[in-house]
Design brief:
It is a single chain. With 165 residues, this protein is an alpha+beta fold. Among the domains are: 33-84, Signal recognition particle alu RNA binding heterodimer, srp9/1 (2-Layer Sandwich), CATH 3.30.720; 104-165, 2,3-Dihydroxybiphenyl 1,2-Dioxygenase, domain 1 (Roll), CATH 3.10.180. 16% of the residues lie in helices and 29% in strands. The protein contains three helices and ten strands. The chain has helices at 23-26, 43-54, 117-126, and strands at residues 35-40, 57-61, 65-70, 74-80, 88-89, 96-97, 107-111, 133-136, 142-147, 153-157. The strands form three sheets. Strands 1-4-3-2 form a four-stranded mixed β-sheet, covered by helices on one side. Strands 7-10-9-8 form a four-stranded mixed β-sheet, covered by helices on one side.
Length: 165
């Protein structure tokens, strides 16, 4: 089976579908990923790590979660393990946030400019963070991999990993 082949047959096309039109050309636009979540054991330890290492701005923090602003109009949500297993009330109780959770080490990659790679290497070293791996990609990008306090695999990467970046 080829990589990324569908595990199940594709659903029937919607009414009005014509050959030559696929979901990519007919789907409403998406402008980017707004939020990314990590699940952590110690919320304050993780918040302090991301603020100290990356300089992310704290938007809000309570016993359940912290929201940190990332350049590029994105938000990193840090959730304490077990605090998202039940629905959470929405603002002004006008709905709810569905339950979600995650376990184990996950991966995030933060984009950095070409000229910042050496500065990031020095910053990680000064911060006492071990660089687990350094990769050079066929498109010309370079990645540095390291871990956060919960064991999540973090990466900073210069342009040149993907066709769009």
């Amino acid at each position: 089976m080829p990589a990324c082949a569908p595990a199940h047959p594709a659903p029937l096309p919607p009414d009005g579908w014509t050959p030559g039109h696929d979901a990519v050309s007919t789907a409403p636009r998406v402008s980017g990923i707004l939020e990314t979540s990590l699940y952590v054991e110690d919320l304050h330890r993780s918040r302090d790590f991301y603020q100290r290492l990356f300089g992310f701005e704290q938007y809000m923090c309570d016993a359940r979660m912290c929201a940190l602003g990332i350049p590029g109009e994105q938000v990193l949500l840090l959730f304490r393990h077990g605090m998202t297993d039940d629905p959470a009330p929405g603002p002004e109780r006008n709905g709810f946030i569905p339950p979600h959770h995650g376990r184990g080490a996950v991966h995030l990659c933060f984009a950095i400019p070409y000229g910042e790679l050496a500065a990031w290497e020095a910053h990680l070293t000064r911060s006492g963070i071990e660089i687990e791996s350094r990769l050079h990609w066929p498109r010309g990008g370079t990645s540095l991999y390291f871990r956060d306090p919960d064991g999540h695999s973090l990466e900073v990467a210069t342009p040149g990993l993907w066709p769009n970046r």
